[in-house]
Amino acid sequence: MRKTLRGLSRDEARAAAPPIEPLTRDERDAIITMFTDLLDGLYVHLPLKRAMYGIDPVQQLRRLHERARLMADETFHREIGAILSNLRDAHTAYIAPSPFLGSVARLPFLVEQFGTDSAPGFLVSKVIEGLVDDPKFRTGVEIMEWNGVPIAEAVRRRGEVERGGRPDSAMARALDSLTLRPLGIGPPPDEKWVIVGYRIGERGRLREHRFEWRFVDPGPGPDEPHPTAPSATATAMHPDRALVRRAKKLSFNTELWSSEQRDRVSRAGVTRDASGWLTGRFQDNVSARSIAIGGREYGYLRLWGFDLSDDDGFVDEVVTMLGELPQDGLMIDLRGNPGGLIWAAERLLQLFTPSHISPTRFSIIASDLTRAMTDAPQNRRELGPWRRTLLEAIGTGEVYSQSVAITPYERCNDIGQVYGGPVVAIVDPTTYSAADLFAAGFADNGLGTVVSVGHATGAGGANVWRADTLNSVLAGTSQHLPRLPRGVGFTMSVRRATRIGASDGAPIEDVGIVGHRTYAMSRADLLEGNSGLHAYCARLLEAEPNTSMDVEWDPPNLTVAVGRLDRVDVYVDTRPRASLDVDETCTLELSDVRERIRVEGFQGSNLQQVRVIRIP
After folding, report:
1. Residues 6+ apart with CB under 8 A from 270
2. Under a CB-based contact definition with an 8 Å cutoff, are residues 203 and 92 in contact?
3. Cα–Cα distance for residue pair 172/427, rounded to 1 Å
4. Are 537 and 331 in contact (CB under 8 A)?
5. Looking at 334-436, which runs of residues are DSSP E strands?
6. Do 353 and 322 touch, CB atoms closer than 8 A?
7. Model-level pTM?
8. CA 134 to CA 128: how far, in whole Å?
9. Chain segment 297-356, per-residue pLDDT in tens
10. Alpha helices in 445-571 (DSSP H)
């Protein structure tokens, strides 16, 4: 384990990797032609990117045909990667053959920002014990310089090469990349080491230490879907940020990282550890605990990522956790969540509201390629809802098909409300992809207040497919992909996300979800477990009206206990059975219950609580 945590030097990593085969001229031509066709006929954000950034990647690729034969392989791969990177879409990326693919170049500490964007400071928030040989360099020191450059300027320069539509999103990724560089989609650091200038305390003298880049392999998540599985077409994930998240877990929570595969197979239910954290089979994706603030207990649900394949099991585990948390207020933290399975993200929303959830809708660009894709027999079930309007759009000159939900409405409402207290969602510019969709659904369905650390979420507004996924979707059509050289791959935005409700039709790409409230992290937040942020959210929760309803079914008796509600309506198998004025508790005798009981709690005429009991 210690060897895995320490990682390899650049030379050791390169020596351990298999050799990379050179490209033939035909393979270069095939790669250029493939991306020309895909960007022109499939890439869903092309009209937006052309309008916003004044770029023409299709023409750039056509011009590359003329120069590619004279390039070295490394230069060719860099050119392809740069054309896609200039789209400023983290979903759409070229994966070049690399001896380091799947690895992360890492320094043995983490840097985080405090203060506002106009006056930022940068602290070391975590250090890997035993891998830093400077005894003065520890958690809490303030970073002042990076290779001799003032730290704020070093982050800004790094932000210029990061893929992000909004400046704050690019800067957040730049800050992460100071100490964690995902490899394969991006190149390894040019330098072998970094000289860090730091100080202890606000008036301490400047000190310097040199840190070597080490290469670690955090591995995939324990429930990561296969690229040709049915769930692979319902994915929205930032691939290199997902790798960074895994590297952080390996580096700063090594024990949990080492147990995740065992937990995924052998864990039975949710358990609470000595520090109060609730975890279960999906410990790589979600954990929860109680937080005491001002003499009151609040629930805290940490959604680390949605990169999983079993959304049913995941949602069930979250339901169990919510039952173990205080019911007077809940903080849902999605910071750093790189996305994953759209179904998992959107199906969670129903757990926090008595109302029905409307999911985010998606559209496909209208082209001959997408028409062939939706016509393919293997895609009729998955892409059928888009097929008719896509054909109409092609005929009328519309840019996009009609917008349709990826997560079926019925699955977004198949469980109903589980948590009845007020809820806030916490996001930041590294909240991306399916986590963007969760934040959009949270805001647009009126679940509660969105608190943004920074201006907004990361603004990843698309369903993204990998090369293997697209290859299976296009199989048997005239638009099938060429056989790619070993090590070459890509990810691409295929279906465009637009919001619902008051923001109906608004794009998420390059815009994100702007918080109802914003919050700037403090030194204390970074060093004391987000104490200020949690206190701020607690004040928001305390100001919200709070009702409660507990339902117990002991056949044939149904007992309902309420707080600050005055009426209860009961439905049995979708038929109304009773409507009762209630103060605290009421009991009904119900017979002939076959499938389910639905209990609705009202405050005046306002529906506040819903519980559904399903009969086994």
Report:
1. 278, 279, 280, 317, 320, 321, 324
2. no
3. 12
4. yes
5. 339-341, 361-364, 404-405, 423-427
6. no
7. 0.96
8. 12
9. 999 999 999 999 999 999 999 999 999 999 999 999 999 999 999 999 999 999 999 999
10. 467-473, 523-527, 531-543
